[in-house]
């Protein structure tokens, strides 16, 4: 199945972040572009900030193609560094702020980042073992650490300094440098997405993919120059960065909140004059659980993007707030490929194919199936570099995912007679919770590192928020005793909060094949039982 090509406003060679920045400065100059807290940028200021922060990166020895790791909450420095890396031709590597030491060490080592920029709030997770075996040479600290902060003093003066690392506060910007000669296929970012049977994979996102994210999202939402886009989502994911691209291309304003708060959501939208909002599936039931009030109508929001929102929740949200939520599908590796157009009832489907892409529902041999038959969703793009370039340092995984010139999503879907795609389930052993991909492999490795655990299996079960919850089935070593809450305390120092299991089943054995492989589908089918321990009710 294919769709017509969407007209583009920038020639192929100019589909890069530096060209986008220069174009916006020339076209929209003094108009409001960005707000985050008390910080406000015009479109012209954004290009200046990118050029001067790129100078600071260059002064630290960062060159075109170098990786810069960035662990920060939603702050203006995050955006400044993102733009500066694109301007310099460096590659930004955002790190999820929920990451703990083991994940941080893996991201730094795998990406071979030479510079780490980290917010002071996360310094306590940084240690010499985290940085050993990596290419990191220098660490910039965002924010002003308390002078009495022993962790910062130890890192800056002893532990990391002894390892030959320079630790210093976020430096001042330099004199502006010219934009690097980058092409649309050059890497702009490496975004890590959780694996299922192995470590997280670094998705290499080229400049043109970022451009097309902005083009397609703005087209679906009907974004115009008078719009005010507002998101509470974290900047280390493509969703919020995509919102920035929309404002950059269209010439409107984008407002970033520091975090999602159900009680503050509508007052914030009213205060900002937001017209377009961005939500993930579980956020809508959370908002609906708040007491109804006039504040849900006292706003200017005309539309929202809400991928993964259950149809009933979307309808209830519209009835209470007057805001229609558009469904859509896109992954870090692809783009905004499938969407429900405004004014068209999705009736619980993912949507219809966007212009510029092809889709196929296929069997295990990649043979296309007829409408009404469930199979894996395969995708490809008409435009060059509209999808990711592959997985960093994982050529075998890249070939496997892009085999036969199609990207294999790992999602089982059905194509309806009218061309709509309906999500059925995941083919891969993947878990999606709170808008985050959880690696069952990663959680299993942490559980198995506990001396009392002999075997385990981690898998998804559905929650009351219509998303996945993390469940673990455990077999203890002979003679060992272990309380689930003790195991959770063990996990909380080693896993992101969203990956810590909610449900735990202690078992005598796990279902296995004749070859000894754990049959997770049987565990998923059994789900939560009366003997299951629940962290939320314990």
Topology:
Layout: H1 17-28, E1 32-36, E2 39-42, H2 43-59, E3 67-71, H3 76-88, E4 91-94, H4 101-111, E5 115-119, H5 128-131, E6 138-142, H6 150-162, E7 166-169, E8 187-193, E9 201-206, H7 207-221, E10 228-231, H8 238-250, E11 253-256, H9 265-272, E12 276-278, H10 283-288, E13 303-305, H11 311-321, E14 325-326, E15 328-329, E16 338-339, E17 352-353, E18 357-362, E19 374-381, E20 390-391, H12 395-401, E21 407-415, E22 421-426, E23 430-433, E24 436-439, H13 440-448, E25 453-462, E26 468-476, H14 484-492, E27 503-506, H15 520-526, E28 533-534
Parallel strand pairs: 1-11, 3-4, 3-5, 5-6, 6-7, 10-11, 10-12, 12-13, 13-14, 26-27
Antiparallel strand pairs: 1-2, 8-9, 9-20, 15-16, 16-17, 18-19, 19-21, 21-22, 23-24, 25-26, 27-28
Helix pairs in contact: 1-2, 2-3, 7-8
């Amino acid at each position: 199945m294919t769709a017509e090509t969407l007209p583009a406003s920038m020639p192929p060679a100019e589909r890069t972040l530096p060209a986008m920045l220069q174009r916006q400065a020339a076209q929209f100059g003094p108009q409001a572009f960005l707000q985050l807290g008390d910080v406000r940028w015009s479109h012209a200021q954004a290009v200046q900030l990118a050029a001067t922060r790129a100078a600071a990166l260059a002064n630290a020895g960062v060159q075109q193609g170098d990786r810069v790791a960035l662990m920060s909450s939603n702050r203006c420095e995050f955006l400044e560094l993102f733009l500066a890396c694109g301007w310099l031709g460096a590659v930004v590597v955002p790190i999820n702020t929920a990451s703990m030491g083991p994940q941080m060490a893996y991201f730094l080592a795998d990406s071979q980042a030479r510079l780490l920029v980290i917010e002071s709030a996360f310094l306590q997770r940084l240690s010499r073992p985290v940085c050993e075996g990596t290419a990191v040479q220098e660490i910039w600290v965002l924010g002003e650490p308390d002078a009495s902060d022993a962790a910062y003093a130890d890192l800056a003066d002893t532990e990391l300094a002894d390892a030959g690392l320079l630790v210093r506060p976020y430096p001042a910007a330099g004199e502006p440098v010219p934009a690097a000669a980058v092409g649309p296929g050059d890497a702009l970012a490496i975004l890590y997405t959780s694996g299922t049977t192995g470590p997280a994979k670094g998705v290499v996102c080229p400049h043109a993919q970022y451009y097309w994210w902005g083009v397609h999202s703005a087209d679906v939402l009907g974004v115009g120059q008078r719009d005010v886009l507002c998101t509470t989502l974290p900047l280390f994911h493509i969703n919020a960065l995509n919102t920035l691209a929309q404002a950059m291309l269209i010439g409107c304003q984008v407002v970033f909140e520091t975090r999602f708060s159900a009680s503050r959501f509508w007052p914030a939208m009213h205060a900002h004059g937001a017209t377009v909002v961005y939500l993930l599936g579980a956020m809508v039931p959370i908002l609906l659980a708040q007491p109804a009030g006039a504040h849900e109508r006292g706003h200017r929001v005309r539309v929202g993007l809400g991928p993964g929102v259950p149809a009933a929740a979307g309808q209830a949200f519209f009835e209470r707030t007057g805001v229609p939520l558009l469904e859509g599908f896109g992954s870090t590796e692809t783009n905004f490929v499938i969407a429900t157009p405004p004014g068209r009832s999705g009736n619980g489907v993912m949507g219809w194919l966007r212009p510029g892409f092809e889709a196929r529902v296929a069997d295990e041999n990649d043979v296309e199936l007829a409408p009404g038959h469930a199979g894996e969703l395969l995708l490809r793009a008409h435009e060059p570099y509209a999808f990711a370039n592959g997985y960093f340092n994982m050529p075998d995984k890249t070939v496997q995912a892009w085999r036969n010139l199609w990207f294999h999503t790992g999602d089982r879907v059905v194509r309806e007679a009218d061309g709509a795609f309906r999500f059925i389930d995941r083919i891969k052993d993947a878990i999606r919770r709170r808008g985050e991909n959880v690696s069952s492999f990663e959680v299993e490795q942490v559980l198995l590192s506990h001396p009392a655990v002999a075997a385990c299996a981690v898998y998804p079960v559905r929650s009351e928020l219509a998303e996945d919850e993390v469940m673990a089935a455990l077999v203890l070593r002979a003679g060992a005793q272990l309380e689930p809450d003790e195991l959770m305390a063990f996990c909380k120092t080693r896993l992101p909060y969203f990956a810590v299991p909610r449900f735990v089943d202690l078992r005598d054995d796990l279902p296995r094949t004749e070859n000894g492989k754990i049959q997770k589908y049987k565990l998923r089918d059994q789900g939560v039982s009366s003997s299951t321990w629940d962290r939320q009710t314990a």
